[in-house]
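re the bet — no i am not wrong, look at it urself. input seq straight from the record:
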Amino acid sequence: MLMASSSKTVDHFAVILKSCGRVVGRQAFMRTDPTHGTTEIGSIYWGPEIARTPAATEALYLFAKHAFDDLGYRRFEWKCDAQNAPSRKSAIRFGFTFEGVFRHHMVVKGNNRDTAWFAMIDTDWPVIRKAFQMWLLPDNFDSEGVQRRKLEDFRICLLYTSDAADEEDSVDLGGRRIL
């Protein structure tokens, strides 16, 4: 990803497909507050070339990884129109926890908008990170690029594996050890 522009509260990034070097989407860090260690992913557009592909999942993973591992933040947020069912479903798929709806949070195009809030926190991150890493492995995809196991399946497996969040431990998945 390449930073496209920056302001006090929003840093926009281009999502670039490695295989061809083309810009195929954008996403931004928004409402970043280093004092409190929080940031939000927003202004997401994953074009048709990467929407619902491993590349889009990897773009989200890289943002979360930067927030938690590089910046040391405590909280990574996702917000969307409460009526946007696909966005809400994506947030849950990625491992965000639903925190509630802010009713009449803002006015958009003359209408009240209720905003659904989701977040990952630093104590969630070790399991979520490991699930992303395992899901993104090439052998999780068949020759057509279709996933063999869902991202949620990896997260569930890790949650029920003792010490799964411990960085020093490996996890056994079907006879294969993953660090």
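see?? Strands lie at 2-6, 10-16, 23-33, 38-46, 75-81, 97-108, 111-121, 171-173, 176-178. told u. also The first strand starts at residue 2 and ends at 6. so pay up
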